[in-house]
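About this split. The held-out portion is used to measure sequence recovery: a designer receives only the structure tokens and must propose an amino acid at every position. Recovery is the fraction of positions where the proposal matches the reference. Here is one held-out target exactly as it appears in the evaluation file.
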């Protein structure tokens, strides 16, 4: 797959000279911010149009078009953005204008580049970092990420190391936000709870959801802020390595999550009595533990979570679930030299004391699973959780499998993070996924989890 090859080239640090030359080219002109376009060289009347032109959130699609080209003119489109740490992400594709000199990415297939075929949002989901093993994150949700779009003349020869196109014909900067207009952001520091609550614009009550991310710690808000724009009261909850919380995750106390659930349940703008829980990776593992030991979680969405305790002990009152053993001798390396840890954890069927007691839960579950997840065996874990629940007379959970999707199933249009640093492992590891399939999975998963929460939380 073309996109997959490009992802490998960038992730492995190849062709950096060409990318640096691209960086110099893309930063050479002044830009007009905020919507449509562009400063255009005098020799062309081409313009870039992004619709809708108003405030657009990251999870929303846009229509990208180019007007004023010559009939059937070949062009290249380039997209780039910088994250909050200054890391540069880029994608590009080749196109041909129609007989009227118009180019509409909803109608025109890409002829090659970072992706091929009809992909209206390909210039966003195919973004890949210049810096190897770098994941796109958004920490300050009150500011947008800026996507720069450039149109290059495909009739002219490119410069050395620049196969994407020749002279720049038009530019635009498109803002992608993380809070819909009117969404309210409320920092939470109540008892031991450290979190941020996001509320829709109008007074509630709304269905309440606790949002848990994975290994890495801190407080990530971008998923909660986006979901609040869909009619939910969502609390992004930190649980380690943030503020005065514990610095490590050797021990996780479910009582902390109990306090957070009680805070959200008692909030005047939260519809009760049941609460939703959304967790991915380590957050999915902890989400299963919370629903096993505590009552009151009506619905839980687990994205590539583990049914076993991993990397630390889970405690609740006088009970504990110890972590499964690490099998370091089973860790392998890909031909590109990236660590693959998929076989690096003992099965909870072998070490049953590490199996989270999901059979106690009365929660309705939705498991979203990337079948190319190499962080751990997410499909196996989801199936084993389902077997145990059914064996104890509980409702069969819904499991949705996404072929060729990797570990980090994010809101729509986030670029695939195929390999990156894993803090628990202490090295760069393979997270899996193929760019196109992963992008499709993210769009569907986002719809599925909203439908699920609306159904079960009213």
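Reference sequence for scoring:
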């Amino acid at each position: 797959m073309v996109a997959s090859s490009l992802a490998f080239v960038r992730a492995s640090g190849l062709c950096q000279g060409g990318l640096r030359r691209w960086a110099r080219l893309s930063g050479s002109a002044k830009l007009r911010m905020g919507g449509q376009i562009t400063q255009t060289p005098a020799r062309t009347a081409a313009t870039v149009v992004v619709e809708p032109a108003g405030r657009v959130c990251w999870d929303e699609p846009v229509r990208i078009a180019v007007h004023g080209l010559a009939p059937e003119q070949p062009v290249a489109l380039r997209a780039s953005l910088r994250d909050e740490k200054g890391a540069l992400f880029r994608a590009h594709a080749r196109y041909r204008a129609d007989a009227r000199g118009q180019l509409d990415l909803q109608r025109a297939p890409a002829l090659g580049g970072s992706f091929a075929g009809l992909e209206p949002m390909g210039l966003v989901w195919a973004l890949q970092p210049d810096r190897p093993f770098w994941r796109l994150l958004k920490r300050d949700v009150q500011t947008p990420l800026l996507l720069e779009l450039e149109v290059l003349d495909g009739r002219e020869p490119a410069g050395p190391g620049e196969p994407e196109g020749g002279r720049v014909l038009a530019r635009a900067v498109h803002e992608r936000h993380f809070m819909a207009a009117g969404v309210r952001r409320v920092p939470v520091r109540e008892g031991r709870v450290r979190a941020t609550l996001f509320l829709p614009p109008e007074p509630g009550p709304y269905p309440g959801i606790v949002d848990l991310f994975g290994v890495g710690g801190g407080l990530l808000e971008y998923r909660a802020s986006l979901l609040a724009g869909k009619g939910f009261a969502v609390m992004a909850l930190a649980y380690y390595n943030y503020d005065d919380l514990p610095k490590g995750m050797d021990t996780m106390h479910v009582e902390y999550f109990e306090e957070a659930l009680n805070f959200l349940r008692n909030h005047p703008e939260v519809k009760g009595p049941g609460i939703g829980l959304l967790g991915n990776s380590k957050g999915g593992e902890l989400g299963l533990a919370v629903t096993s030991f505590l009552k009151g979680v009506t619905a839980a969405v687990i994205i590539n979570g583990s049914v076993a305790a991993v990397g630390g002990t889970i405690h609740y009152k006088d009970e504990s679930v110890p972590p499964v053993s690490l099998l370091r001798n089973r860790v392998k390396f890909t031909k590109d030299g990236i660590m693959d840890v998929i076989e690096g954890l003992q099965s909870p069927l072998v070490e049953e004391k590490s199996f989270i007691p999901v059979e106690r839960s009365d929660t309705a579950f939705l498991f979203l699973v990337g079948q190319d997840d190499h962080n751990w065996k997410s499909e196996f874990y989801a199936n084993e959780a389902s077997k145990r629940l059914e064996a104890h007379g509980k409702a069969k959970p819904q499991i949705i499998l996404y072929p060729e999707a990797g570990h980090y199933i994010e809101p729509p249009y986030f670029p695939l993070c195929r390999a990156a640093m894993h803090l628990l492992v202490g090295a760069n590891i393979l997270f899996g996924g193929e760019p196109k399939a992963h992008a499709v999975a993210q769009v569907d998963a986002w719809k599925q989890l909203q439908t699920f929460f609306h159904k079960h939380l009213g």
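Annotator remark: Helices lie at 2-11, 16-26, 122-125, 222-228, 254-265, 282-293, 378-391, 435-457.
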